[in-house]
């Protein structure tokens, strides 16, 4: 699930495009950290809370949808790749925190705990193992998306091509937000 398109990967591609791979590393590393916290919380019982109170998930979907649509709007209006002191890449902690409004990340956390962490002796160790496996598999997958954006950065010196890529990424971000509701 880490390599498939979703909010994190759209944001990583965009960050790679705008800031380059080196400045996107905190974003890349913040995602598995945030997911590890999510996996731990779900493993400790938050999944049961979601089952008892589905309105929490709906609230998270609304917040995640609004955030992705805002990102899509910003991408749609972006005209050129340029270094600026005003724009800053997403930080490690921002990337980690984003996982808590990312419906795909919650889906991953609930699914992984239900499918791969059986109750009983060693439960905590199995949660830790799942977190480590996610980081080891997920980090290279996410790096591919950021590197793709960074690679586009070198190619997209033509403002028309860049506008096409930005609008394509904006459409993908908006479509991802729409998929939250299926």
Overall spatial form: globular
Query: Topology as H/E string?
Result: HHHHHH
What is the mean pLDDT?
84
Strand content: under 5%
Uncertain regions spanning at least 5 consecutive residues: none
Span between termini: 17 Å
Sheet with most strands? none
What's the number of extended β-strand segments?
A: 0
Fraction of helical residues: over 70%
Computed structural class: mainly alpha
Please compute the radius of gyration using only Cα atoms.
17 Å
How many helices in DSSP terms? Answer: 6
What order do the helices and strands come in, and which of them pair?
Layout: H1 7-52, H2 55-77, H3 92-98, H4 103-116, H5 123-155, H6 159-179
Helix pairs in contact: 1-2, 1-3, 1-4, 1-5, 1-6, 2-6
Can you characterise this structure?
This protein is mostly helical and 182 residues long. 79% of the residues lie in helices and 0% in strands. The chain has helices at residues 7-52, 55-77, 92-98, 103-116, 123-155, 159-179. Helix 2 runs antiparallel to helix 6 (159-179). The longest helix is centred in the first third of the chain and has 46 residues, at 7-52. The mean pLDDT is 84.
């Amino acid at each position: 699930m880490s390599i498939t398109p979703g909010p994190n990967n759209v944001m990583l591609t965009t960050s790679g495009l705008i800031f380059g791979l080196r400045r996107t590393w905190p974003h890349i590393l913040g995602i598995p950290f945030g997911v590890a916290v999510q996996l731990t919380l779900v493993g400790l019982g938050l999944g049961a809370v979601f089952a008892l109170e589905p309105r929490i998930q709906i609230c998270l979907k609304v917040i995640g949808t609004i955030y992705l649509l805002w990102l899509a709007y910003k991408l749609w209006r972006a005209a050129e790749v340029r270094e600026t002191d005003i724009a800053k890449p997403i930080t490690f902690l921002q990337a980690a925190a984003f996982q808590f409004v990312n419906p795909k990340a919650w889906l991953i956390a609930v699914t992984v705990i239900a499918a791969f962490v059986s109750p009983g002796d060693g439960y905590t160790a199995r949660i830790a193992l799942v977190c480590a496996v996610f980081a080891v598999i997920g980090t290279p997958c996410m790096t591919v998306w950021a590197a793709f954006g960074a690679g586009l950065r070198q190619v997209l010196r033509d403002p028309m091509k860049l506008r096409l890529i930005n609008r394509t990424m904006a459409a993908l971000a908006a479509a991802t937000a729409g998929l939250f509701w299926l």
